[in-house]
Amino acid sequence: MRLDALDGLRTLGHRLPRPAPPCHLRTREQIEEEVGVIETHPAQHEAFGPDRRVHGSYPTRVTDELAERLRAAGCVFAEDEANALRAAFSGEALETAVARRIEGSPLEQVLGFAAIGDVRVDLGPGVFVPRARATAIAEIAAARRPDARIVVDLGCGAGTLAAILATRLAARIIGTEVDPVAMSSARRTARRYGFEVAEGSWWSPLPSSSRGRIDLAVAYLPHVPTGQLHRIHADFRAHEPEVSVDGGPDGLDPWRAVAHEAASWLAPGGLFVTLIAPEQRTEARRIGEDAGLDVEYEESDDDLVLLAHRPGDR
Ligand SMILES: C[S@@+](CC[C@H](N)C(=O)[O-])C[C@H]1O[C@@H](n2cnc3c(N)ncnc32)[C@H](O)[C@@H]1O
């Protein structure tokens, strides 16, 4: 979870505090200079050609009234957003959706889904918007444990990591989540991808029969230090619950809670994978080692993927 003010802007729903110039007039590099490196939505992969200039039918949409309204509200990819909204809604429902977007609701919450990696998760209002950077957790986890049989996604939110893992592994997958609003989205995502969900804190709602038998656990834990929450983009602060991002004084309280019980839930040789900020490296390792786990790191762009192993033979 990046701590800069642009966190949350890196999805299709980039919004600036002022009208954004038409994106077809600018290269991707120019846009990235303004808003940071862009994690593209599949729609944008189609929109950006090999020369990294916006192409296709975009110039004809310059006069698009809906795109103009979205641009005036600061939406960087106003043309893409207009198309996405029109594809999902029509008539009065479209007007309501546009009003919510202009008022600052993240685009994915307005659309009711987020397309991330190669999965599509249900996303109701007030549910954490999946970040593309978190897909590294699931990809690395699946690559490290392709033969995992029991897998858990702790704090599954809308079910993003569980959904990705369900497309990669032939395993029983269970997502846990404490927030009942996120659980509603997770349940719908779970039906599509065939995993289970259980409501409660971290490991506690898991079936007791899985204790000591979990081959692989993943989590995109809240890890923003409380004092830095104000740096998250205002649209996301207003529409995502604090419990999804607030990691306590140093951002590592959720990891402390999860690590504390990890060795009793993981199978011998079992693996837990999460993502932290580079400045949390030393303390996060100490927490894992104090809990009896062997900790290693893999770099992923600006983040660190933490891999904690329960010692023992698999
Ligand atoms: C950063 S979000 C990640 C959500 C999802 N894994 C994703 O990548 O989109 C963290 C999630 O942890 C959940 N959470 C926070 N505290 C929790 C707890 N004690 N037990 C279970 N889940 C919790 C939040 O509700 C939120 O959905």
From TrEMBL:
Q: Pfam families annotated for this entry?
A: Methyltransf_25 (PF13649)
Which residues belong to any copy of the Methyltransferase domain? 151-235
Q: Does this entry carry the keyword Transferase? A: yes
Please list the GO terms describing molecular function: methyltransferase activity
Q: Which GO terms describe its biological process?
A: methylation
Print the keywords alphabetically. Methyltransferase, Transferase
Is this entry keyworded Transferase? yes
Q: Extract the coiled-coil ranges from the record.
A: none
Transmembrane feature ranges: none
Per its record, how is this protein called by name?
A: Methyltransferase domain-containing protein
Q: Which organism is it from?
A: Aeromicrobium piscarium
